[in-house]
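Slide 14.
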Amino acid sequence: MNQDENLKVLYIQEQDRKRIAQDLHDISLQNLAHLTHKLELAGMMIDSDPVGAKLELHLVNKKLHETMDEIRNIIFDLRPMSFDDLGLKASFERLLSVINEKNEYEMILDISDVSCENELVLVNIFRIVKEILFNIVKHAKASRIEFSCYQEDEICYISISDNGVGFDENALDNLMRKHFGISFTKERINLLGGNLLIQSHVGEGVNVSMEIPLMKV
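Slide 15: predicted structure.
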């Protein structure tokens, strides 16, 4: 790698660290601080209002399990467990299941497994897909997600589409400057030697397609 590419790698890594730290602060630490206050309240109520204390403890137990799930998701973001055990296909299936936990989306899926000797490539493919899917959840206002992934001639082909609000393709450069996730996605794909194509029209959703070479160690 040349110096510019090395700086891009370091920049992406630093942004990942900031995002994970922000998630831990916004979700886990705030929830745990709130639970601490709830436990203190239950302790003060235990003699004068045992029924109320039991109710508070029940709420604490419920929120604690929710916080554990949130921390588990953050850990999964760092290194998906299913990726280690079963590979990229199972990791995608788990990710899509988490995204559609409340059955908000019609999912049209065609996922084949992808093999590569260089696990760093597969991990980055997973993170690229995760970023795109989370952008759909945050911004698209979609009811349908289409996802396909397959391998052919040492190339990983991925297509992700939604039926959301879309955007004007002429404004893509401005969107990339405003939404760092899109910019990071492009940088990751460039560093992997791949190609990214984003197509959209206002009111007609977005289609993202990519080709990423499966480099060997």
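Speaker note: The two ends are 15 Å apart (CA to CA).
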